[in-house]
Amino acid sequence: LENPKGIKWESISGLKNRGFVEFEPTSDDSCVMKLKMSIIMPYVLVSLFQGMPSVVQEFLQNKLLKWSLEMFRDAVKADLALERGDIELGDALFGAVEGRANALEEALK
């Protein structure tokens, strides 16, 4: 693609999520990133959240979002590393993302 504006995704492992991120240039070397993301909460968390105070729910939801965004960031970094020809770094980052996603998925079963 020439000059793409964004990335659309749907998870295939870990915490189920999907979304779209759009990059709007603000100068030659910077941009504003707009993110829309939906997280499909596992049943175990939905039932767990029902009895919790809202402050605890918000904390846990923010943690899950943070972990998902960190995995997305690392997947993008891995892809960029592979594009530059840094196979070792790209593979290491993808391996780390996969490991965290699998651990999160197991914890939420």
Provide key terms for this protein.
109 residues; alpha+beta; three-stranded antiparallel sheet
Q: What does the largest sheet look like?
A: 3 strands, antiparallel
Helix content: 40-55%
Total helical elements: 3
Give the rounded overall mean pLDDT: 82
Beta fraction: 15-25%
List segments where confidence is low: pLDDT < 50 over at least 5 consecutive residues: none
DSSP E strands, number = 3
Which series of helices and strands comes N to C? EEEHHH
Separation of the first and last Cα atoms: 38 Å
Oligomer: single chain
Global shape: globular
Task: Describe the structure in your own words.
- By secondary structure, this protein is α+β, with helices and mostly antiparallel strands.
- The protein is 53% helix and 24% strand.
- The chain is built from three helices and three strands.
- The protein has helices at 43-49, 54-83, 87-107; strands at residues 6-10, 17-27, 30-39.
- It has a three-stranded antiparallel sheet with strand order 1-2-3, with no helix packed on it.
- A hairpin with a 2-residue loop joins strand 2 and strand 3 (30-39).
- Helix 2 (54-83) runs antiparallel to helix 3.
- It is globular, with a radius of gyration of 16 Å.
